[in-house]
């Protein structure tokens, strides 16, 4: 993936951290994918490393992120797309993360216009908020394959209707990840709690 990315993680105290980490491991194992990653909602990608230069933490701290109370992740159904990093994911209702995604997209070259219309249009037309469970170089998953993982998700107690403590979260932590490196090296280089 070119450049770096901003991700939204569950709050550190959320039980979803361990549950989703386990589900990602189980899903990857089930489909023989070697790729493991931190549970997250991608806010934006393609951030040039020159944007944050030698002090990624100061750069992240300078972003005008909305308050925790205005950011909510609400889970929806499982889907699969023919995109490596979206091979299987939990759809996230866009309304709760769109404003945060828009603010984050403005740091990408070409979306930083003064009136914000580039980022606004991107958030409306292109941003697809989701939480991946599988990165894999395979075809789109079949309905029976999706159903198998849905059973694992539901058995773990995660709500795909966005209900309760395991149906999403409010606030969280925004992290900067150098996603131009190999997946096994994807780790936060800066973080900020909302």
TrEMBL record:
UniProt xrefs under Gene3D superfamilies: Cyclic phosphodiesterase
GO BP: any one term: cyclic nucleotide metabolic process
GO MF, one example: 2',3'-cyclic-nucleotide 3'-phosphodiesterase activity
Cited Pfam families: CPDase
Protein name: 2',3'-cyclic-nucleotide 3'-phosphodiesteras-like protein
Organism: Lophiotrema nucula
């Amino acid at each position: 993936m070119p450049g770096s990315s901003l991700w939204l993680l569950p709050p550190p105290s959320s039980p979803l951290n361990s549950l989703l980490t386990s589900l990602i491991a189980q899903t990857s194992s089930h489909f023989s994918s070697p790729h493991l990653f931190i549970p997250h909602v991608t806010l934006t990608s393609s951030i040039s490393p020159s944007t944050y230069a030698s002090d990624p933490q100061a750069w992240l701290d300078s972003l005008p992120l909305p308050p925790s109370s205005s950011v909510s992740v609400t889970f929806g159904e499982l889907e699969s797309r023919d995109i490596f990093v979206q091979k299987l994911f939990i759809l996230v209702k866009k309304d709760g993360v769109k404003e945060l995604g828009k603010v984050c997209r403005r740091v990408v070259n070409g979306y930083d216009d003064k009136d914000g219309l580039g980022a606004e249009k991107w958030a409306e037309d292109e941003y697809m908020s989701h939480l991946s469970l599988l990165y894999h170089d395979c075809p789109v998953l079949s309905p029976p394959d999706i159903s198998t993982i849905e059973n694992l998700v539901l058995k773990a107690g995660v709500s795909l209707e966005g209900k309760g403590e395991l149906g999403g979260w409010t606030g969280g932590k925004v992290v900067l990840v150098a996603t131009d490196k190999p997946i096994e090296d994807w780790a936060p280089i800066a973080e900020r709690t909302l």
